Amino acid sequence: MEFVKKHKVILAGILMVLLFAIAGTVFFVIRNNNQSKKKQSVEKQKEENYLSLSVSDQETADLYAELYEMSREDVAEQQVKTKDWEKTAKELEKAFFTIPENKKYQMEKGGYSLEDLQEAEKLSVKTGRKAMDLAKAKGKVSDQRKWSEVVKDSEILTTEEQLGLTKEQVKTLEEKSLGKEERVEVAILLMNGTYTFDEVIQKLGAGKTVEELKKQNGN
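RE: above sequence
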């Protein structure tokens, strides 16, 4: 009799373990399915954001996606939020050229130098390479890698060059007495396909200012 009771207890225990195992498996499968559906929903929404843009805005999104090394859908998502390309550009620029403070904290804890992380942001602006990529290329303090191994002198570009102007074009604009900010604005106008460089030079020669070219673009 005692043996039968023990046998029942053991059997009940085995059944409980099996039930928990089955329940755990079911929960795992359901969770994965939910996560997969959620991811698909997010991706679908991003695609819809891109398709909701006008043809010209889609072209602009494509350009920014190439410039900031990200998907066109992510660019479109930001544009849908701001509904202003200047604001969108600033957000994309911030994400490209800087490392979030919380990420810096985590990387410091993981063995990176705060000084190197800050230098990566500065070099990002000068080279047009993503700050996070530069930081990872430099590596942790224990890697003992020098910045000269990561960034070559030939990679250091002016802001205008980062935005697509050639050295010759920059020199031409300097000869037109355009300051750095104006040259950057011209670079953005060219990048957006608003004007060709020859058209900009022609309009500047006719007495137009960069600010007037921007306003004409807005209209």
